[in-house]
From TrEMBL:
This is Nitrate/nitrite transport system substrate-binding protein. It is found in: Endomembrane system. GO terms for cellular component: endomembrane system. SUPFAM superfamilies: Periplasmic binding protein-like II. Residues 1-25 form the signal peptide. Pfam families: NMT1_2. Keywords: Cell inner membrane, Cell membrane, Membrane, Signal, Transport.
């Protein structure tokens, strides 16, 4: 772990922040940032071109790097006056970035990838920084939990983890016999949550369904029906009986525990250990037009990520207080703390150590690996969102168009040079992780061999296969 660098303004940083703030005040409510830009430009050559910015986020604990960068003054240190604005759902957030109402956002990793390849919408977005590792869970209703718990192996008087989705097979079969669909929720068609839930279900022998061109339901041949619900609405939707479970980020799994309406059955680090989660996303033309601003934004966020993981998470209690504010996540402190301070509660009386449930800086969490982007692309192909086969090179090129480690390294190396972060916190890599294990089904992943990876799955599209409303065709 790195040491907490503390909160200190340099004289220059304080002056830049002051100028940006004065410039913003001069703009009134018009949103015109011309005065602020002039102030930044006049202060020093190479200063940020656009110091007045608005970023979007969804009310989840993994937006923490943005809140901390704002509240601990890291944005101001970099001469940025940033407004953070919660968004109603992931579609509204995506549209805000594409339309330019938002300069950047806490985004699902799949959103800039999908937009760039034209799935759902078409726009040139980039992800120059990964916000975190892990942070999600799958929760089931009390009714479902009561049916599966008696059949679970126990360890120390508690259910042994990880729990395979195979335990749901008799429950799903019972629903089918009654002529009822077994419904589960996830937050967006290209969300990590969708792919994690699908991965877990398929690893347990349950088909989560395939997408057809133009279809955002993804229910062809499905044993389990998946639908979209915004994160903060997950507990209420579960309580209403509309869904039998869901995959979402925190604090909305812990909210179900607190309300005693559901039980997290597995965390995402048990599905794929140290999986990449959210990214900081923005338009490519923004980064091209405002390179100094982009570098400053990334430096501020990296400093916030470091602060969050410093001294074995010593700052997490303060982070929880900040996130509990209504302008950020707005959940009770105890609910946020239940997963963000090194513990995770599955049900009353079953709280376990979970030191790696939220990772923001350690393990190179911020570096946007090409192989991470390629994993998302493989899952899009596996479930039919990418309707046709493509050679490996296609995956490599799309990943490099979206994930921008060059921009990350520009910012991170400047922080290393300044002595702000240690040199060994920046990976020396060609942009790809090595072969990765740690998946619940035991399958290894090599980002340099996407088609070979796809061929390993028992459930999922194979080479030459396509999906129509009548089912999967092809060899």
């Amino acid at each position: 772990m790195v040491k907490d660098r503390g909160f200190r303004f340099s004289r220059r940083s304080a002056m830049v922040a002051l100028l940006a703030s004065l410039a913003l005040a001069g703009c009134g409510n018009t949103g015109d940032a011309a005065t602020a830009e002039a102030a930044g430009a006049n202060f020093a050559a190479g200063a940020v071109e656009k110091p007045v910015l608005k970023f979007g986020f969804i009310k989840l604990t993994d937006m923490a790097p943005l809140a901390i960068a704002k509240e601990k003054g890291f944005f101001a240190e970099e001469g940025l006056n940033v407004t953070l604005e919660p968004q109603a759902n992931w579609k509204v957030l995506l549209d805000g970035v594409i339309g330019g109402q938002l300069d950047g956002a806490h985004m699902l990793a799949g959103q800039p990838i999908a937009a760039t390849i034209g799935y759902g919408t078409k726009a040139d977005l980039i992800a120059p920084l990964s916000l975190d590792l892990n942070g999600n869970a799958i929760t089931v209703s009390n009714k479902v939990w009561e049916q599966v718990k008696p059949n679970l192996p126990m360890e120390g008087g508690k259910p042994k983890h990880p729990i395979s989705a195979s335990v749901l097979q008799p429950v799903v079969a019972s629903f089918k016999q009654q002529g009822k669909p077994f419904n589960m929720g996830m937050v967006f068609p290209v969300s990590t949550h969708n792919y994690e839930l699908r991965y877990w279900l398929a690893a347990g022998g349950l088909n989560p369904g395939y997408y057809t061109p133009g279809d955002v339901g993804g229910t062809v041949d499905a044993d389990v029906q998946l639908s979209v619900t915004p994160p903060p609405q997950m507990p209420a939707t579960l309580e209403a009986g509309t869904i039998e479970g869901y995959c979402v980020g925190e604090p909305w799994n812990q909210a179900a525990v607190q309300k005693k309406i559901g039980v997290p059955i597995i965390t995402d680090d048990e599905i794929w250990n140290d999986n990449p989660e959210k990214v900081f996303g923005l338009r490519k033309d923004f980064a091209d037009k405002y390179p100094a601003t982009t570098a400053a934004m990334l430096r501020a966020i990296i400093k916030a990520q470091q602060w969050l993981d410093a001294d074995n998470g010593a700052n997490r209690v303060e982070a929880v207080k900040i996130l509990s504010q209504p302008n950020y996540v707005g959940a009770d402190e105890e609910v946020i703390a239940a997963s963000m301070t090194g513990k995770f509660t599955f049900e009353p009386g079953d709280t376990r150590d979970a030191p790696g449930f939220n990772i923001f800086f350690d393990k190179y969490a911020g570096y946007p690996y090409y192989s991470d982007a390629i994993w998302y692309l493989t899952q899009m192909r596996r479930w039919g969102q990418i309707p046709e086969d493509h050679p490996d090179q296609w995956y490599f090129e799309r990943a490099k168009a979206v994930y921008r480690p060059d921009l990350y390294l520009t910012a991170a190396n400047a922080l290393v040079e300044a002595g702000t972060i240690p040199a060994d916190s920046v990976p020396k890599t060609d942009g790809y992780r090595g072969e990765q294990s740690g998946f619940i089904d035991g399958i290894t992943y090599n980002g340099k061999q996407p088609n070979a990876y796809l061929a390993k799955f028992k459930i999922g599209l194979k080479k030459g296969q396509k999906v129509s409303a009548s089912g999967v065709t092809g060899s």
